[in-house]
Design goal:
This protein is mainly alpha-helical. The protein folds into 2 domains: 3-152, Ribonuclease III domain (Ribonuclease iii, N-terminal Endonuclease Domain, Chain A, Orthogonal Bundle), CATH 1.10.1520.10; 160-225, 2-Layer Sandwich (Double Stranded RNA Binding Domain), CATH 3.30.160. 58% of the residues lie in helices and 10% in strands. The chain contains 11 helices and 3 strands; from the N terminus they run H-H-H-H-H-H-H-H-H-H-E-E-E-H. The chain has helices at 3-14, 21-27, 42-63, 69-80, 82-91, 94-102, 115-133, 135-145, 147-152, 160-170, 211-225; strands spanning 177-184, 191-198, 202-208. Strands 1-2-3 form a 3-stranded antiparallel sheet. Strand 2 (191-198) and strand 3 (202-208) form a beta hairpin. Helix 2 (21-27) packs antiparallel against helix 7 (115-133), helix 3 packs antiparallel against helix 4 and helix 5 crosses helix 7. The chain is globular.
Length: 230
């Protein structure tokens, strides 16, 4: 896939047409790609993370006039976390685009299935749109891409680790214990396996691109296995 095809397919999936195609190219270029003069997406990801937080925070402030600061903070965190960004990336087919456009410049295309890589690419694309057209088009893009999750998030969902801790404390059980099981992958895209255990109630393992993400995954699997709502 060449640059013109990349821009065309991106527009087809998202409705947004880049004026400066190099911005999208950079946004979808991961550090694992070799033999290329492209700039990777790390700087764009940094900027996109802040743009996303601003847009979602403003939306929550305006859309929920009676919500308290703590409630808005919880919703904001759930909307900007890496897992959510990765899901948005899949929804707009960034994983497929990155694999197709990478060609032979990636060490291994499996890296584009990583939640961390997809989440970073999603944030980088937001920054690319901002630099290409300004804040208002970026805001419209974000609110459209996050629309379903924002509308489904009226009931605040605790993060799995907090929910599991509250569940254990409410039943007089020991606090959940998290242990690192393994760490695999290269430094730029590690994968951690962590276990979550509540004494006498079982243990589950989870994966993530950071220890915290793996702990959250393990806690969520524990809660799901016990049919505990959170």
């Amino acid at each position: 896939m060449d640059e013109s095809q990349l821009l065309s397919v991106f527009k087809k999936h998202t409705g947004y047409a880049f004026k400066d195609g190099q911005l999208l190219v950079n946004a979808l270029t991961h550090t694992s790609q070799v033999n290329t003069d492209r700039q990777n997406n790390e700087r764009l990801e940094f900027l996109g993370d802040r743009i996303l937080a601003l847009v979602i925070a403003q939306h929550l402030y305006e859309d929920s006039p009676k919500a308290r600061e703590g409630e808005m903070a919880l919703r904001l965190n759930s909307m900007v976390r890496k897992e959510t960004c990765a899901q948005v990336a899949r929804n707009i087919h960034l994983d497929e685009l990155m694999k197709a456009f990478a060609g032979k410049t990636a060490v291994h295309k499996g890296v584009f299935d990583s939640q961390n890589v997809l989440g970073d690419a999603c944030e980088a694309v937001l920054a690319a749109i901002y630099l290409d057209s300004g804040l208002e088009p970026a805001r419209k893009f974000i609110l459209s891409a996050w629309k379903d999750m924002l509308s489904q998030d009226n009931v605040i969902r605790k993060d799995p680790k907090s929910a599991l801790q509250e569940w254990a404390l409410a039943r007089g059980l020991d606090m959940p214990v998290y242990v690192e099981v393994s760490r695999e992958g290269p430094d730029h895209a590690p994968e951690f396996v962590m276990s979550a255990e509540v004494t006498g109630k079982g243990k589950k393992t989870g994966k993530g691109t950071s220890k915290r993400a793996a702990e959250q995954d393990a806690a969520e699997k524990f809660m799901t296995s016990k049919k505990i709502k959170f």
